[in-house]
Amino acid sequence: MIRIATSDGRVLERVPDPQLTLAQAIFLAGLWDGVPLCAGLGKCGLCRVRFVQSAPPPRDEELRRLGAEALAQGWRLSCLHPAQACDIELPEPKRSGQARQQSGSAGTAHARDAAALAVDLGTTSIHWTALSGHEAIASGQELNPQMGLGSEVMSRLGFAARPGGADILRGLVLDRLRQLVAAAEHKAKAPVSRLCVAGNSAMTCLLLGLPLEGLSRAPYHLEYTGGDERELASDLPPARIPPLLAPFVGADISAGLAAVSLETTNPESGSPRFPFLLADLGTNGEFVLALSPDEYLLASVPMGPALEGVGLRHGRTAAPGAVRAFALTPAGLRPEYVERPPQPGEDGGITGVGYLSLAAALLRAGALDESGRFVVPATPLGRKIAGNTSEQGGETVLDLGGGLGLPASDVEELVKVKAAFNLALSRLLAESGLRAGALTAVFLAGAMGEHVDARDLAALGFLPEALAGRLVRAGNTSLAGARLLLNSPQAWDWVRALPGKCRALDLASDSGFGSLYVERMVLRHVP
After folding, report:
1. How confident is the model at residue 100 (pLDDT cuts 50, 70, 90)?
2. Does residue 203 surpass a pLDDT of 70?
3. What angle do CA 265, 130, 283 make, to 5 degrees?
4. End-to-end alpha-carbon separation of the chain, Å?
5. What would the mean pLDDT of 349-372 be, rounded to a whole number?
6. Residues 360, 456 contacting (CB under 8 angstroms)
């Protein structure tokens, strides 16, 4: 048996299952709900456990992340070991903040109002808004309850391919939707009669219990294209599913495009002028180059969960106490927090946007070079910052103070994300024959769409300088679109007509994809 002693004194036993990792077995026991696990990457360290006896041989990733002393004490990363019989102890879990916001009050909802629920179903997070009529009465965000079974699309699909895996994943989201519906009904004082769920293609098909083969292996294709209403379960209201536009450009993008085009994120400027770009950045980067009302060019690239605060050493989702930015001051780097500094004993970590801010500050100070390597610059401030680096577990780590550090492997992950974004943008522009300066706006949605600084994106090479001033921080366009599609028949008709106006680029099948990607693994923009 797997014997698990928890930090609060409980002891649980689970049947070994060599098809699972030990971390997955612990997650399925309900012990890591709300913990932003990197789910098998061996990077976040949040799945660490201590083997009471007979610890398995350590992996190189564990030496880098935990150190030799902890390994000698029996600590391991459970995502790197199978769910075999063992006796382990769990530390207190480091959960992600739920960061919920309420709008309206119970007193504003009336029993006669129709209640509805708009949901953005992301790979990493779920965002939702409860509606009474057209009024938002509650909203919030939280980790996708599937997170412990794969931190990005392909690993999630890999778990779904196991016997019973797809049913487990589907059940986790359905259970959470039931809870959200019940909470919305309590708030609205009325039954929820309508849902709109906008998610990427993989999350949508998992939710609906549809075949996943077309998304799991090349040549990728869609077997379901959305644009209809589906029954999720007998005890849930029917769900409106926006169109899926391509294998990895999903309903979140069609809903987001409706929000940007029909209910612009900048009301003072009216509807956006063509051509414009919508970029939704999460574990998958989804891009729409809107050339005209009747022509949309699509692209997608895998980006991993780093921008959502998952998978980096101190990565956390945005919640009070997390670092959201770093300011470069004469005294060095100064962290800026979400709402407040972390409280005593609290590990707030660093958000994805905070990591981008940090990398941009280090680049400006000369402590990082264009390849993403730590260097000792000529300037006094740069030398002061670089003096906080040391070798730990075989890699360079920059001490940020407050128990936080930036290892070289985290910088490498950020460079990969930048390369993917840069590649998608440059290929879309090349296909359309446009120069970057021709774009009227870049609407940035998803994980970075509310808080990122355009100057940081330009400094790191995500965008050319010419577009930095045209960046619109669009926020969660997927959720805004889902809400719009619940209440506007005209918007629903508009979005259902989108697929016939779209053409997708298959970047991954391009013979030159690898070389183009590697060429962009530098912290400057490559056209």
Report:
1. very low
2. yes
3. 60
4. 56
5. 96
6. yes
Is pLDDT of 107 > 60?
no
**Does residue 300 belong to any structural domain of this protein?**
no
Domain boundary among 355, 384, 412: 412
Which of 89, 124, 147 corresponds to the end of one domain? Answer: 89
Contact 499, 471 (CB under 8 A): no
Confidence at residue 240, expressed as pLDDT on a 0 to 100 scale = 98
pLDDT at 99: 46
Distance CA 240, CA 228 (A): 6
Which of 107-121, 346-360, 495-509 shows the lowest mean pLDDT across its residues?
A: 107-121
Give DSSP secondary structure letters for 338-400. SSSPPPTT----B-HHHHHHHHHHHHHHTSB-TTS-B---SSHHHHHHHTTEEEETTEEEEEE
* Residues whose CB falls within 8 Å of the CB of residue 115, separated by 6 or more in sequence, listed in order: 109, 130, 131, 132, 184, 185, 188, 190, 191, 192, 193
Nearest to 370 by CA among 459, 464, 306, 468: 459
Does residue 267 lie in a domain region? no
The predicted-structure confidence for 67-93, as pLDDT tens digits, reads as follows: 899 999 999 999 999 999 999 999 999
Find the radius of gyration of the CA atoms of the chain.
23
> What average pLDDT does range 437-441 have in this prediction?
97
**What is the per-residue DSSP string for 251-307?**
HHHHHHHHHHHHS-S-GGG-SPPSSEEEEEESSEEEEEEEEETTEEEEEEEE--SGG
Q: Are 418 and 424 in contact (CB under 8 A)?
A: no
Cα 60 to Cα 387: distance, rounded to the nearest angstrom: 26
SS in 3 state form for 425-469?
HHHHHHHHCCCHHHCCEEEEEECCCCCCCHHHHHHHCCCCHHHHC
CB-neighbour burial class of residue 486 (10 A; exposed 0-12, middle 13-18, buried 19+): buried
Q: Domain containing 84: what range?
A: 2-89
Q: Beta strand pairing status for 239-241 and 276-281?
A: unpaired
Q: Please tell me the total count of domains within the chain.
A: 2
Asked if residue 354 belongs to a domain, the reply is yes
Torsion sign (Cα): 447, 449, 455, 458: positive
Give dist(CA 168, CA 149) in Å, integer.
10
pLDDT value of residue 264 = 56
* Averaged pLDDT for residues 455-477: 95
pLDDT tens-digit map of 41-65: 788 899 999 999 999 999 998 988 8
Q: Looking at residue 66, which CATH number applies to its domain?
A: 3.10.20.30
Percent of the chain having pLDDT more than 70? Answer: 95
> In terms of C-beta distances under 8 Å and separation of at least 24 residues, what long-range contacts does 158-161 make, across chains too?
158/216, 159/24, 160/206, 160/212, 160/216, 161/212, 161/216
User: Is 452 inside a domain boundary?
Assistant: no
Whether residue 387 is predicted with pLDDT greater than 60 in this model: the reply is yes
CA distance 299 to 289: 9
For 413, list phi and psi in degrees, rounded to 5: -65, -40
Give φ, ψ of 325 to 5 degrees: -165, 160
For residue 103, what pLDDT is reported? 52
